[in-house]
Automatic annotation (TrEMBL), chains A, B:
<dbReference type="GO" id="GO:0030659">
    <property type="term" value="C:cytoplasmic vesicle membrane"/>
</dbReference>
<protein>
    <submittedName>
        <fullName>Sorting nexin-9-like</fullName>
    </submittedName>
</protein>
<dbReference type="GO" id="GO:0036089">
    <property type="term" value="P:cleavage furrow formation"/>
</dbReference>
<dbReference type="InterPro" id="IPR019497">
    <property type="entry name" value="Sorting_nexin_WASP-bd-dom"/>
</dbReference>
<dbReference type="GO" id="GO:0005886">
    <property type="term" value="C:plasma membrane"/>
</dbReference>
<dbReference type="InterPro" id="IPR036871">
    <property type="entry name" value="PX_dom_sf"/>
</dbReference>
<comment type="similarity">
    <text>Belongs to the sorting nexin family.</text>
</comment>
<dbReference type="GO" id="GO:0016197">
    <property type="term" value="P:endosomal transport"/>
</dbReference>
<dbReference type="InterPro" id="IPR001683">
    <property type="entry name" value="PX_dom"/>
</dbReference>
<dbReference type="InterPro" id="IPR035558">
    <property type="entry name" value="SNX9_SH3"/>
</dbReference>
<dbReference type="InterPro" id="IPR027267">
    <property type="entry name" value="AH/BAR_dom_sf"/>
</dbReference>
<keyword id="KW-0968">Cytoplasmic vesicle</keyword>
<dbReference type="Pfam" id="PF00018">
    <property type="entry name" value="SH3_1"/>
</dbReference>
<feature type="domain" description="SH3">
    <location>
        <begin position="1"/>
        <end position="60"/>
    </location>
</feature>
<keyword id="KW-0813">Transport</keyword>
<keyword id="KW-0653">Protein transport</keyword>
<keyword id="KW-0728">SH3 domain</keyword>
Length: 494, 494
């Protein structure tokens, strides 16, 4: 039995694993390993365990299952890229995207309507995502009254196959049920793939933290990954469309293994993916937009995301350099100052002069204070700059996938522009053309709602991270002042 | 008329001056210029003004005037260096030295006796400097009850020769008379030369601040020179032997020009110079030391000054690097952080999203705060590190001349060791030998008093400079914390 490798997987050394690369064909040698693992052999004849979710055993997947419907929804533009797992006609462009977050919050000017979807993953309703007109900012998503959230915590090393295979399992607890569920990184990755497939054309889905780095069982790495998974989940929870989707609800609150397996299978067979998602979006009571207006909105947002991308990258570059200085030369210098004071103190002690002790004690204490400051300086970036960097890193990822999302809309506009020719050539009916225009309008409202979602989240996030950064900076400088004040008090000139 | 150049003098460009070098012979072309200037011609035929104190007109000085007496006081060791302006037999080694300062202060364990000298410069008494035994620290100078001090201030640009010549005059006000006198740098230099000549064998006389740098009329330079002249004068005032000397009193409190000129002439003819100064030192009630003890004291002090010299130089190197970082890369980085925040703020302003103003204002303010911090960081070294560096620089100079001073004593010890041979050879009498031993003992007491003077001043100076440094450091970090606290208060997450 052959299998196709879907994602890169790097074997953990000494763990009986086999490294595989995306696109590689491998031979299944033992499908009955269990615990999510399969034994396989690569073309070089090497044998080892690979995660079953990373490969596609031949004749299991059928990427064209949902192909029929999408062609009815809008005409396929020629030469445009087709989404990998979505065969519908619109350019999905949805590979490896971030997204935007929590809505304009408790802004009273904006209609707040709980959208009519089930919060139970196993009720199969045809969900409709509504876009409203807000007096203040324009089209916005309908936000739920209750802000979903979750806590990712308590990473535990588990093992399967009688200790042969190790993995890390995180506890995910949604605020709705307060009942924890366990997920491994590969489950998060599965969720990401489903969200990208389903919503990627309308909503930029942010990448998960890096799939694989060396030493994935090291505490430092586990902590960092957990923190980033938490950040990713928080963003997903804050998004009214994502958070209310069946697949996301499944992930947060499945009842048992059986429930999870069934839900997974169902999600993988979901046909409302790619641009089909626009068929589930309803601009409630909003007039159709004209093409020029739609284009202008796209261009404005494109300009903004590009400018912000530059600003964010600039801040990251500077932050990185500052980090290096704070953890490298600067504490080294404070340490040298500290050592120089202590050295002078011990020279003074050797003078043989009476009444030297008060000065030498004070000098030693001052020297030690500067050594403490050196350590504080070196440890500070983890306490403040880290969060500033993480937030900007998230935004860098998010901004990086906006051009693709906007691209989907641009392609739709181009298609509508060609519609007159297609009607004349008899390839589509005038009624098809009207439908296409209407749908381009829906896509534009959806993009605008997404932009507003992005902006309101951005304002919240940057306020929060700047508060956190400055608060820690204040504490840092206050603590240094305190330490130096104490060192100062030990010197005396009578 | 020919003249010998005593010191280098660099002409101020466009000021009608002539550059001259030590050792050069020049021709006086006009001795009646006045204002301390003489017109002269060098060997290349160039004519210009030179300061009269920088040259020695032939047949005016007689370096050997005090030669006779010194040979009676102690036998001249062969092959030892002879002081330039002191023809006596002992190695003076006194070129370009710093010194040590204020005595053990109001320490009640130590006899405090006002030494019997006149505080009026024009009374010609044979001054005796007394060394006492302090129970705590050993031999100490007798310190006056009243601590002399002075203020060097108010540098004024003066001119002579109807504006042809410019110079800077400093106001020197002693705390005794509270009556200011004016002195130009060249007068300080004259005082330095007299003190070096008279006391250099017993007391390390610290160098004056650098004689000449480019742009000597620039405000920055004048301020720095004044500060250093103040430091030098404070050290001289604190020294019980120096401060009570006639020449020093003349400098601080001459009545008028005539008085000053007469006093100068008298000081230049003083015969109690070089090792002759030891004849004016009286170890009161102290037993003669044996040679071994004298040698041990010398060696101990040598070791200490060498170790402290290393420590001080180390601190200076580190301080210099820290200075560079604080005025170069560090503020540049804070400035870039500030600019990055402000840049992000202006990108956000361009979003077109309503309700952005609070965040963008706060971000701009935070950015400006970091720019202010950048400036504070760059200006801080002048407020704290500067004084730490200046003090250590002074001590570096001071420590650098101790080996020479100790050398004078070592040479005397060697001579006494040879005395038996000289007696056997009939070159000196047994009574001469006894006198030599007694005088070596006096020199040792004098050195020990000087060491103790150095130590007590060192303890005072380092306590003071560390207090000052740490106080400014505390203020600096507190001010940063204040600024950041204010910046923090402008962000809001509801």
């Amino acid at each position: 039995v052959y299998a196709q490798v879907l994602y890169d997987f790097a074997a953990e050394p000494g763990n009986n694993e086999l490294s595989i690369r995306e696109g590689e064909t491998i031979t299944i040698t033992n499908q009955n390993i269990g615990g999510g693992w399969i034994e396989a052999k690569n073309s070089r004849g090497e044998v080892g365990l690979v995660p079953e979710d990373y490969i596609e055993v031949s004749n299991v997947f059928d990427n064209n299952a949902s192909g029929g419907f999408s062609n009815n929804w809008a005409a396929q533009p020629e030469g445009t890229e087709t989404g990998k797992t979505s065969s519908n006609a619109w350019p999905s462009g949805g590979h490896g995207h971030p997204q935007a977050y929590q809505g304009p919050g408790n802004n009273s000017n904006k209609p707040m309507v709980l959208i009519t979807i089930s919060f139970l993953y196993d009720v199969d309703v045809y969900t409709v995502y509504t876009v409203f007109q807000s007096g203040e900012v324009g089209p916005v998503w309908a936000y739920p009254d209750y802000q979903l959230d979750c806590v990712v915590a308590d990473p535990k090393k588990g093992s399967k196959l009688y200790g042969l295979k190790s993995y890390i399992e995180y506890q995910v607890t949604p605020t709705t049920t307060n009942k924890p569920v366990n997920h491994r990184y590969k489950h998060f990755d599965w969720l990401y793939e489903r969200l990208l497939e389903k919503f990627g054309s309308a909503i930029p889905i942010p990448c998960l933290p890096d799939k694989q780095v060396a030493g994935r069982f090291e505490d430092e790495f586990i902590k960092m990954r957990m923190e980033r998974l938490q950040g990713w989940m928080t963003r997903m929870c804050r998004h009214p469309v994502i958070s209310s989707s069946e697949v996301f609800q499944l992930f947060l609150s499945y009842k048992d293994e059986k429930d999870w397996k069934m839900g997974k299978r169902k999600a993988e067979k979901d046909e409302t993916v790619g641009v089909m998602v626009f068929s589930t979006i309803e601009p409630e009571g909003l007039p159709d937009l004209d093409l020029i207006e739609v284009e202008q909105k796209c261009d404005q947002f494109n300009r903004f995301t590009r400018a912000m991308d530059d600003g964010v990258k600039d801040l990251l570059t500077i932050g990185n350099e500052h980090w290096k200085r704070c953890t490298g030369p600067l504490p080294k210098e404070y340490q040298r100052i500290g050592k120089a004071f202590q050295n002078l103190s011990s020279v003074f002690t050797s003078s043989g002069y009476e009444g030297e002790a008060a000065l030498t004690d004070a000098l030693t204490a001052a020297g030690k204070t500067y050594e403490e400051i050196a350590q504080m300086v070196a440890e500070q970036p983890k306490k403040d700059l880290h969060f500033l960097m993480e937030t900007n890193n998230e935004y860098k990822g998010l901004l990086g996938c906006f051009p693709d999302t906007v691209g989907v809309h641009k392609a739709a506009i181009e298609k509508v522009k060609e519609a007159d020719k297609l009607v004349a050539a008899g390839k589509i009916t005038p009624s098809d053309k009207t439908t296409m225009s209407k749908r381009a309008s829906t896509m534009s409202y959806s993009l605008q709602a997404e932009m507003n979602h992005f902006h309101s989240n951005r304002i919240y996030d940057y306020n929060r991270v700047m508060q956190q950064y400055l608060e820690q900076q204040v504490k840092f400088y206050e603590m240094i002042a305190d330490k130096l004040r104490h060192a100062h008090s030990q010197f005396t000139t009578m």
